[in-house]
Amino acid sequence: MNKGKTVFAQIMSTFNEYEFQKCVDRYKGDRHAIKFSCRDQFMVMSFAQFTDRSGLRDIETTLNLCGDLYRSGIKVMPKSTLAEANEKKDWHIYQDFAMTLVKESTALYKDERLRIGLDEMIYAFDSSTIELCLKLCPWAEFHHGKGAFKMHTLMDLRGSIPTFVLLTPGKVNDAKVMNKIPVESGSFYLMDKGYVAFEKLHKYFHQRGAYFVTRAKDNMAYEVIESRPVDKGSGVLSDETIRLTGYYSTRKYPDTLRLVVYEDFESGKVYHFLTNNVSIKDPLTIAELYRERWQIELFFKWIKQHLHIKTFYGTTQNAVYTQIWIAVCDYLLLIIAKKRYGLVPSLHSISNSIGQVLFKRADIRELYNQPTAPVNVL
User: How far separated are the first and last CA of the chain, in Å rounded?
Assistant: First the structure.
């Protein structure tokens, strides 16, 4: 039972201390540490993310006001010490640790199934631009006097697990990172129309035996090779095999493609879905597949709002990247805790409420799985 432990301690007990220390040792993170280690930095930064602290001074003040931090495994870290740690301790430590949490999360959710019932692995790939103050962060120059960087993420939709994250300058075009995606043969990759780069789709996905589902651009030139009958009552307006006819596009993608046109009856919008998969017989499944992309949009929302990346606790590239990767680690720890403790509420509800109960001494299962008195997340 966990009644004597705080909720924060229960969440943090889910990660492997040995694997964490391996990541620290790899980059000599504790080489000059005397009082405060990388683990102390990680715990304090996680506390700040979960409780929506507005800055370094706020973190220090709040920790000083909290009683019995020992039971939560947190030390009060002076703001100057935390600022120095964020600037100097290599952000790759937390990137590597996040990847160990990804492996653990993937193993825990390997038997999860999506509502569409496909056996293949299904991933969503997208990016989010995170703005910064250019005067404070000159390394993040974007355009028009603004600063920003991009967070490119590949998500395993079985457990909303970010299996691959790449941070780039804000200027980098989305399609230019497609060659970095770890593509698996036989898996599906859902992407928006910003990734319709035919040469890359053919080279990095089609030729590797992977399937992509994206949205066709309005100016795409093509000819219809075959048209299949559809049930228009389902919203599917057409299901066609096509070949690109543009001078450059036909050379970049010489094989045929499948174009499914779908109308959303609720909104009245018509969508043109493009895929290289022909084995799925029902074209409605292609539309349903693309709809699953909403999970990655929720992830970016959580990263920016619920895990409070909107407030940065440092301005150097190392400090910002450290905060991003610790936030990813915290997100993964919530995923692991949800499965390990059998928590009933959605990940969205848990992440939205966790800051309110962080230092409550109660079994996290009893707290979140109360049938008549759920945690208020509003």
Answer: 28
Which spans in 33-144 are helix H?
38-51, 56-65, 79-88, 92-108
HSE value, Cβ hemisphere, 13 Å, CA-based, for 182: 10
Strand partners, 151: 128, 167
Q: DSSP per residue over 15-28, as a string? A: S-HHHHHHHHHHTT
Q: Are strands 222-228 and 161-169 parallel, antiparallel or unpaired?
A: unpaired
Cα Rg for the chain, rounded, in angstroms?
A: 23
CA distance 203 to 253: 9
Q: Please tell me the distance from the alpha carbon of residue 362 to that of residue 158, in angstroms, as a whole number.
A: 29
Q: What mean pLDDT, rounded, does the chain reach?
A: 89
Amino acid identity of residue 369, one-letter, is: N
CA distance 329 to 320: 14
Q: Which amino acid is at 117?
A: G
Residue 93 makes CB contacts below 8 A (sequence gap 6+) with 23, 24, 26, 27, 29, 38
β-pair partners for 129:
150
Classified as helix, coil or strand, 252 is: helix
Element (H, E) at 150: strand 147-156
How long, in residues, is the chain?
378
* CA atoms 77, 80, 81, 83: torsion sign: positive
Residue 121 has a pLDDT of 92
Summarize pLDDT for 312-344 with one digit per residue, the tens.
Answer: 777 889 998 999 999 999 999 999 999 999 999
Percentage of the chain beyond pLDDT 70 is 94
Stated pTM of the model: 0.90
In this structure, the strands spanning 122-132 and 188-190 are parallel
With tokens 């683990």, the residue in question is 39
